[in-house]
Amino acid sequence: MSDSTGKPRSFQEIILRLQAYWAAKGCAVMQPYDMEVGAGTFHPATTLRSLGSRAWAAAYVQPSRRPTDGRYGESPNRLQHYYQYQVLIKPSPPDLQALYLGSLEAIGIDMEMHDIRFVEDDWESPTLGAWGLGWEVWCDGMEVSQFTYFQQVGGHDCHPVSGELTYGLERLAMYVLGVDHVMDMPFNDPDAPIALSYGDVFLEAEAQFARWNFDVADTDVLLRHFEEAEAECDRILNAPELDPKTGRRIVMALPAYDQCIKASHFFNLLDARGVISVTERQAYIGRVRALAKKCADAYVLTADGGFAA
Amino acid sequence: MPDLLIELFSEEIPARMQARACDDLKKRMTDGLVEAGLTYAGAAAFATPRRLTLALEGLLSESPTLREERKGPRVDAPEKAIEGFLRGAGVTRDALEVRDEKKGQVYFATITKPGRPAAEIVADVLDDTIRNFPWPKSMRWGAGSLRWVRPLHSILCILTDDAGEAQIVPLDVDGIKAGDSTEGHRFMAPGRFSVTSFEDYAAKLKRAHVVLNPEERAGHIWQEATNLAFARGLDVVEDKGLLQEVAGLVEWPVPLMGEIGAEFLDLPPEVLQSSMKEHQKFFSVRNPKTGRIEQFVTVANRETADQGATILAGNQKVLAARLADAKFFWENDLRIAKEGMGPWLDSLENVTFHNKLGSQAERIARIAALAREIAPVVGADPDLAEQAAQVAKADLSSEMVYEFPELQGIMGRYYAVEAGLPEDVAAACEEHYAPLGPSDAVPSRPVSVTVALADKLDTLAGFWAIDEKPTGSKDPYALRRAALGVIRLVLENSLRIGLQDKFEDALDLLRSPRYEKMRDGLFHDMWQDFQRGKEVSDEIKEFIGASAENEIQMVSKALAAGPSARESVVRKAIHDIADLWVTQRSGIEWRGEFVPMRDDLLSFFHDRLKVYLKDQGIRHDVIDACIAMEGNDDLALLVKRAQALQDVLQTEDGTNLVQGFKRANNILTQAEEKDGVEYSFGADPKFAEDDTEKALFAALQDAEKTIAAAGKDEDFARAMGAMAALRGPIDAFFEAVQINSDNEILRRNRLNMLHSIRQICLQAADLRRLDG
Q: Any idea which UniProt keywords this protein has (chain A) (predicted)?
C-alpha cells in the first residue's frame, strides 16, 4: 500500500482505505455474506441488524449480482457482478454526514477542489419491504454514494433509525483513479511485479456469466428453485420456537432469511432470462417481499432483534 | 417592538420542497403568534439547502391583557350556584360586582387574562410548528422520535429589541436547544458563529459563503450563466423550473460553462436538453447561428483555487458518459426507425395499457379505427389519419423514450421522419398528445387533430366501460384532462362533431375483441359437438333459428351424410351460426350497458364544458339552458347558442323577456296542474278582446317564423333577438289582460296563448333553467 494520504493507485487500495477508515471510526469490519445478493443491503448485517433496538456498527464489501446488467464485459461501466461497500450504523450518529465526507477524503478526494452535493434520492426496496430517506451524493456531478436513513425494513418501523452508506466501488474507483473503462482499472498496485487490471480478474467471468444469465440458464430449474426456496422459508418459520433436541427456544430467522435471499436471486435470474412478464414481475416481487416480511417478523423475536424473554 | 429571527438548520432539504416549506413556516408561525395575541409588522421566509429561516419585524413584546366580563347568578341564588360560578370564572367573591338587572340584583365577574411575554409565546408556537410541520415526506433519525425532512441539527431563535440586544428564546425540542448561532457554508466556511439580528445574520452568512435568499441565488445563477454564454455569442435556454431547482441545491452558486463533445452535437436538441437536465441539472446553451445546443452551464456550490477547473472537468466527463448512452440509444433507435419501426409495434403487444383494456397494440388498433371514423369530420385524409394513429405510439418502445419518458412524441416525430413517413403523419406523432394542460397549444393540422381526438375518446370510453371514472379529487388516468382536451380540440378548431356518435364508435371498438373471443369460443364448442354427431343446440335454434335457417339445415345434412360431408362448407356454416348468435346476443347485452355509459360520458363532458366556459365568462345557468336543447353533443353548436343567450341576457329586453316568460310559464303550469289538462291547442285570434292581446298574437306569429328559420341557419343571435323582441308585447299583454277571466272561453284561449309563448321561447333555449 502506498502513502495513505495521497491518491490511491488501485481498486484494492481504495477498498483497503475504506476498510481502515471505517475500522478507525469504530465499525466492525465484516466480510461479505456468502450468498448471491443483488446489493449490499441484502447482507443480514444490514437488513436484519437494522431491526430491533440493539446498537450496531458494521462495514463490509459485498459482491453483488445484477444479471440484467451484464454486457459481456464490453460496457465501460456496466457489470453483472460488481462490488458495493456498505456501512450501517444504528442509531445513526449525528455527525454521519461528516463521517461520510471523511471517508471520501480518505480515498483521496480533496474537498477543497471538488464539489460535493447531497441530492434528494429516496430509497425503496420493493423486495425487502423497506424504505428510507436520504440522498445520492454527487462529486462534480457524479453519483458516488447512496446515503439513507432507514425508516422501515421488512414492514417494521426502524427504532432507532440506522444510517446506511452504500458506495458503488467500481464507479467510485474509476472516478478517483481517472479510468474510463472499468476493465482498464488497476486492480492491484500498477507497479507490482504482477500488475493486474480489473479486466485481468473479471473480463472472462463477465462474458461467461452474461451468456449464462441471458441465454443458457435453465428457466424450469430456476423456477423450481424459486418455489423450493419459498417453501423452505415458510417451513423454517413455521417450526416451533422450542427446539425439541436442546430444549431451548431457537427462532430460525437467519436460515429462513437465507432462503429469502435465494428466492430473490432466482427471481433476478429469471428476470434476466426474460421469462417474467410485466404483470408477473409485480407478483414475484410481492412473493419475495412476503418472505422478507416474515423473516423480519421472526428476527424481532430473537435476542439480536431485541427480544427479551 | 422586537424583531424575531428563527433558523431551522438541518441536513440537505430536497430542492423541490424548499419554496413550499418557506410558505408553511411563515404561515404556521404567524398564524400561531397572531392567534396568541402577538401581532407583527412584516414577515419574510427564506430557504437554502440546509436551512429554513423566518424573520419577523415589529413583533409585540407581549400579548395584550384580555378582560372578559361574565354574568353570574342572582345575588339571592343558592350558595352552591354562586360557588360554582366563582370556580368557573376563577375569581374570589370580593372581586364580584353586583348590578341591578330587570330580574333583580345579579353578580358580574371580570376575568383578566394577563398578557404573556413574546419569548414564551414564540417558544410555544415554534415548538408546535416544528412538531407538526407539513413536509410532504418526513423522517426520524438516530434514537429520537422527532420528525423532520432530514435530521434537524440546530435551532436559532432570537428576539432582538430596539436597542439591538438579542435574547435567546428558551426552547428545547427533543433535546435540540434553541441558541443564537448557526453555521456557514459546509466546505468554504465551516464552524459556528453567533448573530444578534436578522441583518447581522444575513451579513455574516454572506461572509460565510451562504446566500440566504433563494431568489438572489437564482438571479445570480441566471445572470452569471447568461454572461458566460454572451461572452461567446451564445444563449442559455431558459428553464425556470430548473433554475429554481438548482438554486435549491446550492448555498454559494458558481456557474461554470463547459463544452459538449463534438461527437454528440448531432443528437436532437431535445435529447441533449433532457439528458443534461434530468441527470445532471445542467442548463443548455444554444448557438443562435446554428440553432444547436453546443455547450452547457453547471452550477457548482463552491469556489476553488483552480476556478472550478477540476469540477468542470469532472462534470464534463460525467456528461460524456451520459451522452454516450443517449447516442447509443439514438443510433439503435434510428436503425429500427429506418426499417419502418416494425419491432416497436410488435413489442407493444406485450405492453399492458391497462389490464382490463388490453395491450398498447390493441389500443392502437382501436385508435386507428376510430381515427378513420373521425377523419371526415375534421377534414383529414382517412388513410393518413389511420396510418398516423398506427405509428403515433411506436416510440414508446424506443430506447430513448424508455430512458426519457418526457420525450414521448417528440422522438416519435423524429423516428417517423426517418421511417420516410409523410410530414402530416410525423407531426401527428408529436402533436396527438396535445393539448396536455389548459394553456397548452391545440394542434390544428387535421391529421394531428384527428388522432388526438381518437386517442382521447378511446381513453375516455375505455375507462367508462370498465367503470374507472374520476371521483372527487381522484383522477389517476387524467380523464378530466382528456375531456378538456377534446373540448378544446373541437372548439378551437370549430369542428362540427356529434360526440354521441363518436362515443358509440369508441365503445363499439372496445367491444369487438370481447365479441370475437366469444364467437371463437362458441365456434370451437359447436365444431366439437358436430364432430361428436350432435345437432345444433335447441337454445341456439330458438334464439336465431329464423335468421340462420339455411346454415342449421346444412349442419343437419352434413351430419346425415357422415364422413362424406365437405368439411370446409360445414365449418363455414357453423362459423356463421356462431357469428349470428354472438352478434345478436352480445348486441343486446351490450346495448344495455352501452346507452347509460354513453349518456354518462356526455354529461361528464358537459360538466367539463361548464368549467371551461365559466373561465370564459359564460354563466353556468346559461350553459344549462342550452345543454337542455337538442344537439347538445355538438359542442360548437352548444357554445354558439350559449354565447347568443348570454349576449341577449345582457340587454334590457332580454332580462325582461325572461321575467315575462317565467311569469307566463308559472301561470300556465299552475293552471295546467289545477285543471289537469295541457293547454297546447293553440290560441284562436278571434277570441282576442284586447288590443294588446291581438298585438301579442301577431308578434308571436312573427317570432315563431323567425326563430324557426334562424334556428335552421344556426343564427342564434337572430333567434334570441326575435325572442327578446317579444318582451314589449308580452309586458303590455300582462299589463292589460286578466288571464283567469270569468269567461271560461277567454280564459282557455289566453292560457293557450301563454303556451305559445312558452313553446316559442323554448325553441331558442330552455329559459326555465335560468337563475332568478
A: Aminoacyl-tRNA synthetase, ATP-binding, Cytoplasm, Ligase, Nucleotide-binding, Protein biosynthesis
Whichever domain contains A228, its CATH number is 1.20.58.180
Residue A100's alpha-carbon distances to A47, B187, B528, B690, in angstroms, are 20, 14, 72, 100
Please list the residues that pair with B236 across neighbouring strands: B285
Q: Would you tell me which CATH number, out of the four given (1.10.287, 1.20.1740, 2.60.40, 1.10.3210), belongs to the domain B344-497?
A: 1.10.3210
User: Is A304 inside a domain boundary?
Assistant: no
Distance between CA A303 and CA A248 in Å, rounded?
Answer: 13
Distance between B318 CA and the closest CA of chain A, angstroms: 6
**How many independent structural domains does chain A possess?**
2
**Cα→Cα distances B290→A286, B25, B286, B400, B411, Å:** 52, 47, 8, 24, 21
Assess whether pLDDT exceeds 50 at residue A2: no
Residues of A in contact with B49 (CB under 8 A): 118
Q: Which residue in A68, A11, A7, A2 sits closest to A202, CA to CA?
A: A11
DSSP-derived pairing of the beta strands A28-29 and A56-65:
parallel
pLDDT digits (tens, 9 = 90+) for B617-658: 899 999 999 999 988 999 999 999 999 999 999 998 888 888
Chain B residues close to A139, C-beta within 8 Å: 314
And the C-alpha cell for A170? 467500481
Q: Could you tell me whether strands B176-179 and B152-160 are parallel, antiparallel, or unpaired per DSSP bridges?
A: parallel
Complex confidence, ipTM: 0.93
Which chain B positions have a beta carbon within 8 Å of A97's beta carbon? Answer: 11
pTM exceeds 0.80: no
Question: Same domain for A132 and A269?
Answer: no
- Average pLDDT on A190-219 reads 95
Provide the grid cell at A284. 414475484
Residues A131 and A276 in one domain: no
Percent of chain B, pLDDT > 90? 58
- In-domain check, residue A130: yes
**A124 and A264 housed in the same domain:** no
Query: Chain B: nearest CA to A223, how far in angstroms?
Result: 21
Mutation for testing the B interface, residue in A115, A161, A276 having most B CBs under 10 Å: A115
DSSP 8-state secondary structure symbol assigned to residue B254: E
pLDDT for position B578: 85
Range of the domain at A89: 11-211
CB contact under 8 A, B318 and A141: yes
* Co-location of A250 and A177 in the same domain: no
* Chain B contact probe: residue of A111, A133, A156, A176 with most B CBs at under 10 A: A133
CATH fold group of domain B630-769: Isoleucyl-tRNA Synthetase; Domain 1 (1.10.730)
**Residue segments in chain B with a per-residue pLDDT below the cut of 70:** 514, 585-592
User: How many helices (H) and strands (E) are present in chain B, helices listed first?
Assistant: 28, 18
